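Tutorial, part two.
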Amino acid sequence: MHLIFEQFRALSEIEICRHVFTHRIPGVDVSSNKAEVVSRLDAAHKEIRNMIGIGGWPLFTAQQVHGNKIAVIDKAGSTLRADREFPACDGIVINQHGIALGIYVADCCAVYIVDPKTDAIGLVHSGRKGTELGVVTNAIKQMIERFGSDPAHMFVQLSPCIRPPHYEIDFAAEIMRQCRALGVQHIHDSGTCTACDLARYYSYRAEKGKTGRMLAVIGLDSPVLH
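Running the prediction step on this input gives:
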C-alpha cells in the first residue's frame, strides 16, 4: 500500500525535530465511529512513523475533548515506556527526547510548537471551540512556565484544517493572532483546507461525520545522535 504523508519545511529545518502529518489512507473503511476508525488506521500510521524513523518511540496522545487543558511531561520515568492517552486534554507539551506526541484531526488544526533553545515541544488539537478557549495559548504558557521557553525562540506550524468558505470561522487566523500576541515570531501556516481536497485529506464536515483521521506527530531526536 502506498502510504501518503506530508512534512513542513519550517519544522524539517530544525535539525533534531521529527514530524509528520498523515494523509487519507487508501482502502481503509472509515464509515464507523472515531475509535474504530482510528484502530483501522493504526497499522498504516505506524508504518508512516517507521518511515520517518520514530516507529520505536512511545507515542503519547490526548483524549481531545475540544477543551483547553494541556498535559505536561517534564521528566522521564517508567510511565513513559508505553503508549498512553492523556484524558480530558487537547494538547501535550514535553522536554524529553525520543518520545512522540500525536494528535488526530479531520478538520480541526494540529498545531506543532518547537523551542529549539530548550528542546521543548508541544502538539495541540485546536478547532473552533478549542481556539475560542485559548488551547494553543495555554500550551505556550505551559512551555514558558515549566520549561523556561521564550516565545521569541518558538516555531509554530499549523496543519491543514478546514477554512472559509467551507467553514464559517477562520480559526487558523485566530490561532496565529493568539501566538503573535504572546510574542511568537516564527509562525507558519500550511494554508491548506481539508474540505477542499478529499482525495488527500479527511474532512468531518464535508463527509458528514463519516470519515477518518489524519495523525500529526512530533518528537525530538537525542542531540548525541548529531
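The chain has five helices and twelve strands. In part three we will examine how such features are distributed along the chain.
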